[in-house]
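[Q] Does anyone have a clean structure-token version of this?
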Amino acid sequence: MVTGNNTYKFYRVTDNNILKPTHTSILKKEGHISSNYTCHTWLPDGRLLVCTDQGEIMLLEANGDYKMLLSESPLENFYIECITTYSKGFVIAGDNGAIMIYEKSEDPKNPYIKIAQVPQSEKKERQDYHDLLQGVMSCRIRCMALSSTDDCIVFTTENNQLMKVHVNVEKPLDDSKYEYLVYPFHSRAISGMDICVKKNLVATCSIDKTVRIWNNPTEKSIAPTLEICEVFNDEAYSVAFHPSGFHLIVGFTDRVRMMNVFQKSLKSYHVIPIKGCREIRFSNGGHLFACASQSNINVYKFYTGENTPEMIFKSHLGPVRCLHWLDDDSGFISGGWDGNVFVWKLQLDPNDPKDVNP
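[A] Here you go.
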């Protein structure tokens, strides 16, 4: 069985182990039903369910012939992305983070009825759950799997989240809440990452406009945890963790922010007007840090924020790709998209004519 946009192929295996198509379209279906078939599944009795991008669920016979459009299909342009079966019926998921549960009935004109839909958002919820719910409901569910005991659905969303919801098919009206299977991930590409030297912490930033700090314990029996997730108004391109673990520097679209790390939040205390900073690195001692913006590199004194003219380095012909400090913090190495690798010194010997920067 193969379905897709304007694609319906029903195959049988011949005696020669060759796939032979017996249907290349769904005949006799009503003309208003969409031909963009998004997913399908086999029912325990051998019949088929085929779903569309307009929220239609079609029941087909075991030989691939069209039977009927289920009267309790969600419709209303609800894009059904995935479908799976369980012991008493089937479950569909798609737009707006919605999951709908259907159960088999004895009525031949209405063989499956909808018994539940999650999430239920009528009740007042805590702010943290409200935020989680808003994030899921703004996305489409991409795929899902049902546990063997029919009591837990695990699913992924188009914003790269891995979620779960506990359901009770015996009492489907019971309140079911969405949860992260492990912890919330970045919803878009990760643009920067750094580790803390003195603590088991990892900082990441992303173009999803968040900066996150993760606890990465050394004991294998303890799972990593998300400690801080801070949302900003601009995309974050780069991040550097101070060796002490108490400070972060993050490069955003139009500025670089120096931040203090608290138990559950990040607080900005100084802003540097550098646009599009794609690389930031602290020195090993933490008293200096280097910021790369296009082909220029600026070195700052961390505790004062000072950047003197002799701490500005220009020789790359293209954007600087990476920075690495020397072990004694006397200088650093830079690599750029121009293919050049330079070694820079912060303090030059005026009596040595060979002691010069590139």
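[Q] Thanks! Anything notable?
[A] The radius of gyration is 29 Å.
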